[in-house]
Amino acid sequence: MRRMEDNGEATGITCGFELGPIRPPSEAYSLLIRATRNCPWNKCLFCHCYKDTQFSLRSVEDIEREIDAASDMRNRIVEASHTLGYGGNVQLAAAALLGQSCDDACLRNVALFLYGGGQSVFLQDSNTLIMRTPDLVHVLRHLNDAFPGLSRVTSYSRSHTAAHKTLEELKLIRDAGLVRIHMGLETGYDALLEYMQKGTTSEQQISSGQKLNAAGFSLSEYVMPGLGGKAMAQGHVRETTRVLNAINPAFIRLRSLHVVPTMPLWERVQDGSFELQSEDDVVGEIRDMVAGLEVTSQFKSDHILNLLMEVEGTLPQDKDRMLAIIDEYLALPDEERLNFQLGRRMGLYDSMANMAESGRHDRVAAAIRGIRERGDDVETVVRRLKDRFI
Ligand code: SF4
Q1: Which atom of ligand 1 lies nearest, measured to the CA of 39?
Q2: pLDDT tens-digit profile of 6-59?
Q3: What's the 233 CA to ligand 1 centre distance in angstroms?
Q4: Ligand 1 atom having least distance to the Cα of 125
Q5: Residue of minimum CA distance from atom 6 in ligand 1
């Protein structure tokens, strides 16, 4: 069997399109097409993704040329699956490419997309709905022509932007093939939205969410437990639950707050004007939110910053099971909760069941002893470990 060369020479594949910096965790196997660059708002205190960058629209021609470049790479990997001894198995050929030390990020992205089944595309960057509706429709049609049989094309949108599209425009975009919108709701508490400079209101979140539902989108709302800090925690939970109940999105996804120096919020943490919630406080917030939800949504905890990633399910039927997981954690003795927090951030635990494995549990307990012997504080070490996930 011949090897697919790292530099793409054997397949003739070379880098040919721009990649933006982020995508949602659930789009790990999606082809990434950069429809716009950076964030047109770029003011949220808890966000550092696009700081020191300038937003720009891209021309339809440029986007479509890059879709064609990705399609060309796809075709060549498919061809290589026949000519390089993989018996026409595209996933096998893509896996072989990913297993090599290929530093062409575009090629790796196309290979990952094919390895994942070649079914989904994510349009980057932070707010694709800001494109003129006819331009976005054109791009979506071109994308579906270039990649026939896609089951999912998704993108981020701000609620402020979605609120300014008419229902007819949104339906046109949905009909052209954009299936899911990932929306950073973060909180439904107006005082906190203002404090964090999110640039929207709960009323706008509800109206845009309901409109996206009516247009037929699968709406995925990201919520940020911990965002209210100590001072606004209660309002954050109460109002976020209210807004989610009013929208009833297809997905509710958690991405817990973690503050690093590159975020504007960092200074407020340092000067003491914003007091962070503890890990256990955040778990308590999630408990109260789940208890108050009256929706028929998929509830997901698929971001690595979340502590209890097993709190997932379909509401309302899985609510009691999800609450029982949270209660089991909160009922642990203090030292065991600390053991779980550190073990999760060390990558030793995925779920609380992992704590029953004495080998893992003992390693974490030994790490806690070592931290204390050095005179360090375990919570501080946990925070430093979480910095790696940003
Ligand atoms: S709108 Fe989104 S991408 Fe832009 S600054 Fe706010 S959180 Fe960051």
Answers
A1: 4
A2: 333 333 344 578 999 999 999 999 999 999 999 999 999 999 999 999 999 999
A3: 21
A4: 3
A5: 44
Which atom belonging to ligand 1 lies closest to the Cα atom of 46?
Answer: 7
CA gyration radius, the chain: 22
pLDDT single digits (tens) 182-196: 999 999 999 999 999
Q: 22 CB under 6 A from ligand 1? A: no
Give yes or no for residue 20 CB within 6 A of ligand 1: no
Q: Is residue 199 within a helix (H) or strand (E), and if so which, with residue range?
A: none
From CA 269, how far away is CA 54, in angstroms rounded?
Answer: 26
Q: Is the dihedral of CA 361, 365, 371, 374 positive or negative?
A: negative
DSSP secondary structure string for all residues of 171-190: HHHHHTT--EEEEEEE---H
The DSSP annotation for 238-260 comes to HHHHHHHHHH--SEEEE------
Closest C-alpha to ligand 1, atom 5: 42
pLDDT band per the 50, 70, 90 thresholds, residue 384? very high
Q: Cβ distance 292 to 322 under 8 Å?
A: no
Q: For ligand 1, is residue 100 a contact (CB within 6 Å)?
A: no
Average pLDDT over residues 217-241: 98
Please say if the pLDDT value at position 151 is more than 70.
Answer: yes
Helices (H), 88-199: 90-99, 105-115, 133-146, 159-163, 167-175, 190-195
Between CA 22 and CA 368, with CA 225 as vertex, the angle to 5 degrees is 90
- pLDDT higher than 90, residue 354: yes
